[in-house]
Specification:
5-stranded antiparallel β-sheet; 21% strand; alpha+beta; 29% helix; 4-stranded mixed β-sheet; 8 helices; 3 domains
């Protein structure tokens, strides 16, 4: 069923969506914005094609552009040493059991081709964190781009030399009717697994491990005026230490496209006050190049009634790993704190929160790269001054005698 056909909106489908979603203005607003963006893209593309002589003239160049990207990608792969390189990491759980979710890859480099084989990954899980095969292919392409010359045109020619093997009915190739709505959490972790294997292929070019948990919080309930609201927040995390530079504190990873929502906007639109939004010292993996630190965000519930909360965190058990002597990042944490001071630790779960309750999210830190004793002392002192590293950690982990006083 088409939402638009021949430029006309399907009014019946529009009404079905409107009457079957709780916050229909938000849902339809998102949908209409996508329609508008697609229409604009179509108009501009047609103008561009006409400018250069029409489709019959442009079409051969489109094919050549794909071939060009393929040639450059194959040339880059040829610079990699032939062999098989594997890596395994684990998600804490799927939200229903305490069993870790295994993500495993073996990368085979052969002349100018790559094979990414995810055999050995966990079977499909009950929690909604499974990946459709298309998502697995997409994250392979995204991770591969990290190691390619950025001047290579980003099109499907890049993926031609690549084969992706993902057994059906596993967490990396979900079988019907497995849940996939929370796949963002698994996508980031699969990126890390690919990077871990690539560290054995290109050790001098590879970063340590990103935060990469897609820490997601969703709340729904009644606004202060009694109208319904749905609020979703995805916390950005941090970048890891890399072969020549520190990680970035509080920044989304390369494969994501969301950005930070200002606290003022949240507080204006929803019955929520942000009581804390800050960095947590000593949570970035130690190293010659430090990993990005954890983010702490506190949400005070100010609705007139209880709200439903869906909480999605990971790397509480298996932290972001360091590389080449670097340390692991701090672990993820979540807390539900009631007005009487009772504090309950959270994981992947759904629960009720009452007015006056405070929810605390601690996003994990990223891994460090290299021997921390080789870190520039001036960088350590700067981190201490900026409350990213404590005086104690500077002395113990980096061998630098620091004084926080200006």
């Amino acid at each position: 069923m088409k939402y638009y056909e021949k430029g006309e909106r399907n009014r019946a489908l529009y009404r079905i969506i409107e009457k079957n979603t709780r916050i229909s203005d938000k849902v339809l607003g998102d949908l209409e914005s996508q329609v508008a963006a697609t229409a604009l893209g179509e108009r501009e593309l047609v103008k561009l094609i006409k400018k250069y002589g029409g489709w019959d003239v442009v079409r051969p160049y489109v094919g050549e552009l794909l071939d060009y990207s393929e040639r450059l990608t194959r040339a880059a792969i040829q610079q990699m040493p032939d062999g098989e390189y594997d890596f395994e990491d684990r998600m804490d759980d799927d939200g229903f059991t305490s069993n870790p979710v295994i993500l495993q890859v073996k990368i085979k480099v052969s002349r100018d081709t790559l094979v990414f084989d995810f055999t050995g990954s966990s079977p499909t899980v009950r929690g909604s964190i499974n990946l459709p095969f298309s998502s697995t292919v997409a994250i392979v392409n995204s991770a591969l781009r990290y190691f390619l010359d950025p001047s290579i045109p980003p099109n499907s020619g890049v993926i031609r030399p690549v084969t992706v093997l993902a057994p059906y009915d596993t967490v990396v190739n979900a079988g019907f009717p497995a849940g996939v709505a929370g796949r963002g959490a698994t996508l980031g972790r699969l990126w890390d697994v690919i990077i871990g294997a690539m560290a054995k292929v290109l050790p001098d070019k590879c970063p340590a491990c990103w935060t990469h948990v897609d820490f997601g919080i969703c709340m729904g309930g009644a606004n202060r005026d009694g109208t319904l609201f749905v609020y979703t927040d995805f916390l950005p995390g941090s970048w890891p230490g890399r072969p020549s530079i520190d990680g970035i504190d509080g920044h989304t990873p390369p494969w994501l496209n969301y950005s930070n929502v200002p606290c003022e906007v949240i507080e204006r639109e929803y019955p929520i006050s942000i009581m804390q939004y800050s960095f947590l010292p000593d949570t970035g993996g130690i190293g010659k190049y430090r990993g990005g630190v954890s983010i702490v965000k506190d949400y005070l519930i100010e609705s007139t009634e209880s709200v439903d909360v869906q909480w999605r965190q990971d790397r509480s058990v298996f932290p972001a790993w360091g590389l080449n002597g670097g340390g692991s990042g701090g672990r993820a944490k979540g807390f539900h704190i009631t007005p009487d001071g009772n504090m309950r630790a959270l994981k992947k779960e759904t629960f009720h929160a009452n007015p006056g309750d405070l929810l605390r999210a601690v996003v994990p830190g990223a891994g460090g790269w290299g021997n921390p004793r080789e870190r520039d002392p001036e960088k350590v002192l700067k981190d201490v001054k900026n409350d990213l590293v404590s005086v104690e950690s500077a002395r113990k982990d980096y061998g630098v005698a620091a004084d926080k006083e200006p």
